């Protein structure tokens, strides 16, 4: 049995990322103050991973407009991220930081390490400006994620963060009606 990480804080970390042609040092301090997505994937030079990372890259400008930074993370090194970025057209379009986690410390702190393989599950974690985890999505290795749906979920999380007393129903899109939980709604939805 596992304990949910929802509403828990980002754990301290130090890591090196490949970002826009450079190796950069990152810590939890770099993440605080803005909405963030930690996007874990099993490994560089694989099959489903580039389709997901490329999909996120295609939606990155929209996420940036929403004040969201994306951090992809695998147990590969930052050197491997650079090599993959330099040799794959799909990965070459990535402009968000690609964190190397060869020790697995970050991956373990999010609970997505496959210990016997030394790889991460497909885990997505959305955090608010305070570093509190608001959304968790975890997939088995063969199931790719949708960046379009990730954007929608972030929009919903940001909406409820600024609209006290409102909640977003299933498949909610910006501009649609929300709900205000009350005794009057019980049994009427």
TrEMBL record:
Keywords, in A-Z order: Antioxidant, Cytoplasm, Disulfide bond, Oxidoreductase, Peroxidase, Redox-active center
Catalytic class of the enzyme: oxidoreductase
Catalytic reactions on record: a hydroperoxide + NADH + H(+) = an alcohol + NAD(+) + H2O
Entries under InterPro entries matching the protein: AhpC, AhpC/TSA, Peroxiredoxin, Peroxiredoxin_AhpC-typ, Peroxiredoxin_C, Thioredoxin-like_sf, Thioredoxin_domain
GO terms, molecular function: peroxidase activity
Localization: Cytoplasm
Main location (coarse class): cytoplasm
Alphabetized CDD domains for the sequence: PRX_Typ2cys
All residue ranges annotated as the Thioredoxin domain in the record: 4-159
EC number(s) given by UniProt: 1.11.1.26
PROSITE patterns the record matches: THIOREDOXIN_2
Assembly: Homodimer; disulfide-linked, upon oxidation. 5 homodimers assemble to form a ring-like decamer.
Task performed by this protein: Thiol-specific peroxidase that catalyzes the reduction of hydrogen peroxide and organic hydroperoxides to water and alcohols, respectively. Plays a role in cell protection against oxidative stress by detoxifying peroxides.
Family the UniProt entry places it in: Belongs to the peroxiredoxin family. AhpC/Prx1 subfamily.
Protein name: Alkyl hydroperoxide reductase C
Organism of this sequence: Pseudoalteromonas fuliginea
Lineage: Bacteria, Pseudomonadati, Pseudomonadota, Gammaproteobacteria, Alteromonadales
């Amino acid at each position: 049995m596992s304990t949910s990480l929802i509403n828990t804080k980002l754990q301290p970390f130090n890591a090196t990322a490949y970002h826009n042609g450079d190796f950069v040092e990152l810590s939890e301090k770099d993440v605080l103050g803005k909405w963030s997505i930690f996007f874990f994937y099993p490994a560089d030079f694989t099959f489903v991973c580039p389709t997901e990372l490329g999909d996120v890259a295609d939606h990155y400008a929209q996420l940036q407009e929403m004040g969201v930074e994306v951090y992809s993370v695998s147990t590969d090194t930052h050197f491997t991220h650079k090599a993959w970025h330099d040799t794959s057209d799909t990965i070459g379009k990535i402009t968000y930081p690609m964190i190397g986690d060869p020790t697995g410390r970050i991956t373990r702190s999010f609970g997505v390490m496959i210990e016997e393989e030394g790889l991460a599950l497909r885990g997505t974690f959305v955090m608010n400006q305070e570093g509190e985890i608001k959304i968790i999505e975890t997939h088995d290795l063969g199931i790719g994620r949708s960046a379009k749906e990730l954007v929608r979920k972030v929009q919903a999380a940001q909406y409820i963060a600024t609209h006290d007393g409102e909640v977003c129903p299933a498949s909610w899109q910006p501009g649609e009606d929300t709900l205000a939980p009350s005794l009057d709604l019980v049994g009427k939805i």
